[in-house]
Amino acid sequence: MTTPILSNATARAIFxxxxxxxxxxxxxxxxxxxxxxxxxxxxxxxxFDFLDVSAGFGIGFKxxxxxxxxxxxxxxxxxxxxxxxxAVIGIALATVIGLVVGLARLSGNWLISTIxxxxxxxxxxxxxxxxxxxxxxxxxxxxxxxxxxxxxxxxFFLNNRxxxxxxxxxxxxxxxxxxxxxxxxxxxxxxxxxxxxxLFETGKLPRVIPAMIALVILPALLVFALxxxxxxxxxxxxxxxNFQGGTSVPxxxxxxxxxxxxxxxxxxxxxxxxxxxxxSHGQTEAARxxxxxxxxxxxxxxxxxxxxxxxxxxxSQYLNLTKNSxxxxxxxxxxxxxxxxxxxxxxxxxxxxxxxxTMGFYCAVxxxxxxxxxxxxxxxxxxxx
Length: 385
Known about the structure:
Elements: H1 9-41, H2 72-105, H3 110-124, H4 128-138, E1 150-152, E2 156-159, E3 162-165, E4 167-170, H5 174-202, H6 209-226, E5 231-234, E6 237-239, E7 242-244, E8 247-249, H7 251-277, H8 281-289, H9 294-324, H10 336-348, H11 351-380
Antiparallel strand pairs: 1-2, 2-3, 3-8, 4-5, 6-7
Helix pairs in contact: 2-3, 2-7, 2-10, 3-7, 4-7, 5-6, 7-9, 8-9, 9-11, 10-11
């Protein structure tokens, strides 16, 4: 007697999944075709032909070359570059600050732990947009004028127009220094891997940090000296009412980075604290009984076990920081939302393609961050039988 297909659990699951996918595809198809038809009836276009048209507006801060006559596609690229810059720097700073505050939260010193606790409670319970506005209007806009800038060593200047610092100008042959630096970094990783292997085999950790530092720095310095030091620095100089030369960072960028990093670090600190506390206290006691130093106990025993608890929520915080960077529009920083979703949309009127491209970018970045962190998470997970 034959069994109907739907009575088989596997076949039934495949059938319902295929039916669901078909329903979703039909829904998207109906939505897109209906939108295109309604727009065409109103004389509006939903195509991407506008990307080659000249944008005709300037962008104050940009990582890649851009002129007012460039196309809308170039504007999209500039917005992506600025957004990724904010995300990368913000994630790095938030992670470092969060690690320090999370460890301070667990400190046996009452004053340190109390300061860390109040730092977390005060900042994470305040809206991020309010913090961005406070840093921009309440701190950086109140800095002195360029003539009265805060100065560090005649090289770095901070005023109400931004942060000015020297910019490198590599000369001919500097590429050899970069190659030597890359080779030194690769050799340092090999030494580190060999040291970890010895640790697993013998239980003894050789002192490799000085050797790693020497491998990274000394070859690059030697090549740099032999090639005639092919690197100059363009130092900013006050001329007239503002500084000329060097690299300038606008106040909006500084305020955005500080606000995003501090706000996100509060959540990362709590994630790290909870992850460390999830490790059995017996691990610490066993390490202490064996005479392991507290710093090595935290680095080689506690943190590796805590990472399996820390990484999953940490991914969410990285994604939140990337998406929260869109709040830069409140203080005029030219990120993707500001130059693309705001200025470009108002000028071109192409709402559908502009919104779709913006959503696609943030979705792609989120998936990329999740992919990288999930791969690291699989490596950090404990192997179980």
